[in-house]
Amino acid sequence: MLREELVRRIGAFERPHLTVLAILAVIGVVVAVGIALRARPVPLASAATASEPSASSATGAASPYSAGSPYPTGSAGSPGGPTPASTPSVPTIVVHVIGAVHHPGLVTLPEGSRVADAIDAAGGTTAKARLGELNLAQVLADGQQIVVGHDDVVSEVRGPGVVAGTGTAATVGTSAPIDLNTATVEQLEQLPGVGPVTAAAIIAWRTQHGRFTNVAELQEVDGIGPKTYARLAPLVRV
What we know:
The chain is of the alpha/beta class. Among the domains are: about 90-170, Ubiquitin-like (UB roll) (Roll), CATH 3.10.20; about 170-238, DNA polymerase, domain 1 (Orthogonal Bundle). The chain is built from seven helices and eight strands. The chain has helices at about 1-10, 15-40, 45-60, 115-120, 185-190, 195-210, 225-230, and strands at about 90-100, 105-110, 145-150, 155-160, 160-165, 170, 180, 235. The strands form three sheets. A four-stranded mixed beta sheet has the order 2-1-3-4, covered by helices on one side. The longest helix is centred in the N-terminal third of the chain and has 24 residues, at about 15-40. The relative contact order is 0.07. The model is unreliable at about 45-50, about 55-60 and about 160-175 (pLDDT under 50).
């Protein structure tokens, strides 16, 4: 009896009533889902993360760092950055090597080079070389001349401003060579190894022969031997 009454009442519901009930059920489900989503915790962006894009967008300036690079764009350490300044070149000197070497002549060396370096640059010594007491460790200066001795020629370093082998200053070392045909006794005495007697002998030879035609004629003057001539030759002219 109760069952029949229930069936009768359910049957009394018309289609519109069922439609309304279905809509209400859907609305209930949607509301329940929305409430559940709002209840979930939402992670907040860190202050640093939030500030970076806003700072860039506010100023309009691009970041100085390229993607994936630890260097700012255009820095000296980055691949595309400016090239560092080049190392300054080492100062050089020019010296004259003559005598018993394979390639006598002018050689260019780094500043601070020594006599041994100059001889090596001139091809090294020949079999006739007689180095004697030549100081191979002497530091050279621009404009000096190195004589590598042989036979009667003494090995030495000459000028500028110093008479090699004596360590004393010579006024002729820093000036033009003395003209043998016009020099006075006083000027000749400025030459290394030339005293009053030798200076007078040079004047006497010049008076007797008229004039010097070449420097080698100094060897005909009394008192000027091979060693003295080797010292005087670079310091005089005709």
